[in-house]
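Question:
When you can, review this sequence-structure pair and walk me through the tokens.
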Amino acid sequence: MAVAVTSTPAKIAGPFPAEWIFSKRAWTMNKPLPIIATLACLLAGCGKPAETAAQVPATAAVAPMAGVPASATPQPVAAETQAVDDRIDALLGDHARYRAVILAYQAAVAAGDREAVAALVRYPLQATVEGNKVSLNDAAALVRDYERILTPDISRVVAAQRYADLRVNQQGIMFGSGETWINGICSPGSADCSSFEVKVVAIQPRGQR
């Protein structure tokens, strides 16, 4: 008994080009074995990399360690700064008050703001002007002789001073090799010096005492 062969194209699911839609006759009679193997491989997903939940894109950022904030990484500069703060607290008093004056003084010197510098100084101030020791009784005197007191060399040292490199002892806080000293001045009537002002107490050439 003869079996009729239909030429109606078989529908095959999958992403195949139009020319791959074929009749049963064409498939059984005209296509060589390698094409059959190729089609079977495509249907089975051969050659596709296995996808797993653990796959991470190459550009994905590395997540921080669980329970450890990024800011918790030890920073040498921060540790050095903390050491200066602790020493000021132990020898002189509240480091935050000293730090505020130190930063304000550096900013004023860097900007050449003589009035701002003069406002941070304790008077009378013993200073050196062209090799001679003089006593400055008020802010106006410092403003008048500013360039001769805060010479370019002294100004550079003050502006470039790293907080972490400040020298702290019972005499105060030293910039560079002694070009500036800052200390706490007890307020009148404060016998235990619990009330004090932080002031610049010395501006002088390198190494001078």
